[in-house]
Amino acid sequence: MTKNTVSKLKLILSMTVFGTLGLFTRNIAVSSGELALYRAVLAATLIVAFLTLTRQKLDWEGIKKDLKYLILSGAAMGFNWIFLFQAYNYTTISVATLCYYFAPVIVTVACVFLFRERLNAKQILCFVMSTLGLVLIIANGGLSGGGSDGIGIAYGLGAAALYATVILLNKFMKHTEGVPRTLFQFFAAILILIPYVAATSGFHLEVLDTKGWICLLILGLFHTGVTYCLYFSSLKELKGQEVSILSYIDPLVAVLISTAVLGEAMTLLQGIGGLLILGFTLLNELGPREAE
Predict the structure, then answer these.
(1) DSSP state, 115?
(2) What is the pTM of this model?
(3) Cα atoms in the Cβ-side hemisphere of radius 13 Å centred on 73
(4) Alpha carbon of 87 to those of 4, 63, 93, 200, 249: distances in Å?
């Protein structure tokens, strides 16, 4: 197989695994803050072991130059996970995931103000239609999950905003790439989340049963440690449009699991809203970019 084919397979696998995230979090009986902390600890431990075994050296000078952004993005990543896990607690996995995938729209708008990027006609259309999709999901929020659905949608949008923040902060990092960047973002998340968890929910690993422990280990080691490495290693050989298209495997798998495996309901208008968000955010990533 060619390098491009191998990279596509890595990305397909990582996106499929990411899509099953909600299924495992439902079986881990700790708070969202605790879960985010343990996820970061397990993933960071695995990546350190990987870098040690493969004898890869870190560019400490580059890390020092990007340290401020690594800390900020790591903190945003940690709380992004908390908000996403909370969204899973209050609404269906499909609705939470579709709200979460509003992040690219937030990035597009933020770039106008932060980097003075101009929106062309296609980008404006995609923004309007994606926002319409979000409105449809929010307007029907109380139909499938009771009153808690609106809270879940709010958490999902909060997670999207935080994920957009991570993406934007990454644009400022010029000296740290790929796995090392992710590792230090995990370290920053750990440093931020330890006092947060201690001050809020506390630590309750003792409440986990065998199923909970298995799901936690899979979530931290496989879903995060292994899959993040697969994801970042695949990006080197793929074009941006290939990554954009294959990335939509994640929400599609999440919706399938939510509806077919867990039997969670989705209204027709929410489904249409989800298609608008995914379809027009994907369209926004495709095709040639106009000169800025």
Answers:
(1) S
(2) 0.87
(3) 21
(4) 35, 33, 8, 18, 20
Question: Percentage helix, strand, coil, to 5, in the chain?
Answer: 80, 0, 20
Residues 190, 178: Cα–Cα separation, whole Å: 19
Model confidence over 65-99: pLDDT tens digits? 999 999 999 999 999 999 999 999 999 999 999 89
Q: What angle do CA 253, 111, 126 make, to 5 degrees?
A: 50
Write down the domain spans for the chain.
3-285
Can you tell me whether residue 118 is helix, strand or coil? coil
Q: pLDDT category, 143, cuts 50, 70, 90?
A: very low
> Could you report the per-residue pLDDT of 153-208, keeping only the tens digit for each?
999 999 999 999 998 998 888 888 778 888 999 999 999 999 999 999 999 999 99
The predicted-structure confidence for 201-210, as pLDDT tens digits, reads as follows 999 999 999 9
CA distances (Å), 252 to each of 45, 77, 92, 207, 258, in order?
A: 30, 22, 14, 32, 10
